[in-house]
Amino acid sequence: MTDQAEPGRRQARAKPVDAARQWTRRAVLDLARQSGGCTVTRPTFRDRPDLGMTTSDAEPMAGFLAVRDLERAAREFTRGYVRQAREDGHTWHEIGAALDLGPSAAHRGVSLAEADYDDVAGDPDGEYARRYGRTFAWTCPACRATVSDRGPSSGPADDEQGHADGCPRLTDAIAARETPWDETGSGR
User: pTM here?
Assistant: First the structure.
C-alpha cells in the first residue's frame, strides 16, 4: 500500500471504529447494570469540570469487569471468524493483514502470518502449549476432516495435520507453496 493510500484507509476505518466505541460503551453500561454494578456521573471533560457537562459511566470496578467480559466474547468471535476464514481457504498471512497485525509483527520481528497464528492460537510459551503443542482446529471443506493447524512455519504438508488422504485442498496448498515467485512478485 502506498503512503498516499494510507490516509484514505485510516479515514475509511474511522467510522466503524467510532461506532464500535459507542456500542462498546453502551454494552459496558448495560453489563455493569445487569451485574448489579453502579453507574456514576462524571464530568464529560475531566480537565474542565467547570463546564458543568456530565456523562453517565460505569463505576470503575464494574466497568472494567464488563470490559473483560466483552474482550473474552470478542476473542471468541475472532477465533470463530478466523476458523471460517481458514475453512474458506484464506492464508494466515491474509488473515493477519485483515486483522491489521502488521505493526505487531514488525515490532516482534515475525512474519504477518506468524503474528496472526500467535494471536489466535495463544501463548507459545504457555503451559498448555509446552505440554501438548499448539494447534488451531478447523474443518477442511474439501475432505470434511478436522485439521489441526500448527501455523505457517513449515508449510501445509507438515502444519495441516488431519486432512483425508488425497485431499485436493491440501494438494493445492502444497503446490501453491512450492510455486516460485515470478519476476512481478506474484505467483504462489
Answer: 0.76
